[in-house]
Amino acid sequence: MTNVPGDANRLRAVIAKIDTDNPLKVPFSFNQGHISPRLDRLEAKLAYMAEYIAYLEQRIESLEEQVVS
Known about the structure:
single chain; mainly alpha; 2 helices; 71% helix
């Protein structure tokens, strides 16, 4: 089994970029302005994870087809 160069750390790199783009702020009395960056960050991570899982499922299917052939 071979991996595309740099693919091993791709997930960590994307999550680190999301963290950088959406820095956390300490909530102060549950002020929406302080909590929103946390929600944006979580939504971005979840969206990326969903896309990454779909990619992995597609990759597994293509590898299974190669094994069967």
